[in-house]
Amino acid sequence: MTSELECLTYSVQHQDEGVCLLVRMGPHHILLDCGLANISSLMGGLSKLVTSDGKTPLPADIVLVSHAHPDHSRGLLALHQAFPLLPIYASEVTSKLLPLNWLDHSLREITPFCQALPLRSPIEIQENLVVELFPAGHLPGAVVTLLTYNTPQRAYRLLYTGDFFLSNSRLVEGLRLEELRGLNLDVLLIEGSYGTSRHPHRRHQENHLAEKIHRAIANSYSVILPTPALGLGQELLMLLRSHHYFTGRDLDIWVDGAVAMGCDAYLGLLPHLPHSVQNFARHQPLFWDERVRPRVRRLSAENLATLGNAPCIIITDLTEDLSKYYQPSRGNWLVLLPEKININLHNQEFLSSTMTESYLLAQHSDGPGTTQLIHNLRPQHVVFVHGSPTYLTDLTSLEELQNRYHVHSPSANIIVELPIGETFLQPAAPESSYEGELTELGTTVTITLPEIITDDPRWLQFADTGLVEARWQGEDLVLRGLSQKELLTQNSDRHTWSLLNCCGSCRYQRGQRCWNPKSPLYNFKITLEGYCPAFERLAHSPDE
Ligand SMILES: [Zn+2]
Ligand SMILES: [Zn+2]
Fold first, then answer.
1. pLDDT tens across 468-492, in order?
2. Which secondary-structure segment (H or E) carries 96?
3. Which has the closest alpha carbon to 369: 172, 199, 139, 181?
4. Ligand nearest to the CA of 228
5. Which of 138, 181, 358, 543 has the highest CB neighbour count under 10 A?
6. Which ligand is nearest to the CA of 94?
7. How many angstroms separate the alpha carbon of residue 14 from the centre of ligand 2?
8. Chain centroid to CA 109: how far?
9. Global pTM?
10. Who surrounds ion ligand 2 at CB < 5 A?
């Protein structure tokens, strides 16, 4: 075992404190994101990690930024001001969106301090340290970061997802799994915002939300949609402009605050947006459009006085004082809040006196997407950050992960040691399943399976005699190949276990796994001969 890899968790976004991780790969110290509101903890940083190299007073050798959301980048300006020599890198799009984090500074005060790196191009950023960025979905410019540290013996590979999303949304394409396969990854630092929950299909989420807004407007409600400055707000605009409930409708959509500035920033990034969006923008303005209905308009002070005279939609950022839009004398108001978003105190008070509902328009991967990414990468270590501690615990306790990887979910200010074997050991791929077809003809049932199943070395043994045994297990029919040896002893002891009280004849055993929550074996792979006190006999055992 070598200890070339370590991670110091300055901040892991359990709530809204942001993400900031320092990783050490051999002599290199790389800061991943800086979402801290206050960077004081970074000041004495390097001395916390054991290293022979004590020559640099900087908190890291380089900083790599995953994307422009504040929980990943709001500390960068202070960091740059404290350490002007510290190189900070991000994708080109992120480098252009970053200034939106510091709207209280004039843009002239913020000298561009972030250097843009190209996508999908390995770059030796330090001696023997190579960085490569891949689009992560989630937000224009968001990347997953691959770091490779080369030594004469071997290469060490670490991937940091930042925030990622596998599905396409309207303004950003999803992460492409096939770009990341076969990396022989040692360590994966991954977000777990949504825990193990499963989301409905994206189109379904969109329709559900559009329906809510449509119904409110039909009932003469004006709708306020508070969102983060970047990402969700622009997605909502695209959805409202292209959904059949709203296209052509005599309706004003007002955009205010940082969301409006986010729209302006997107307009400057058009060549980086998906082709479908570029096409759309060829025929009509992407955001500001007073001509095509529904109208999308920037809210100004004079409009504020007439808001709500007719039902309208207001999209603004979460930090804005929402009560300024709300005119109780002019009609009814509904506030629609995105799920899993922190509301500032001032607005909490306001919201308690207003009608509010929530909706889901996910910007992060759900549980199945997260495990899918992990199984595609199959690293030795999986380190979960970014998500409520309960959600992260849901993920780390998944047996399908625990069985295969070293799973970590560190709290803040912890050094996570990441021991790696001398040679690369790829954890086993999860069991594939095969889809087949059933045909019933007369008295014969034929089961057809895809040919790829024969690629598995176990097929030879399974098909050894060309005979199978089929047996019901509850609702499932289990197929088992019969071996030569079994055929010879056909009539001796093959069936005896099914007469005994054992896991093989227990109603809670399926696929050689225990499904009885009351059993100590629950969720574990078991042998059919095993037994536990929670045993219950299969109701219709074929041998009874
Ligand atoms: Zn984000
Ligand atoms: Zn985030």
1. 888 877 778 888 888 777 776 654 4
2. helix 92-97
3. 199
4. 1
5. 138
6. 1
7. 10
8. 34
9. 0.77
10. 71, 163
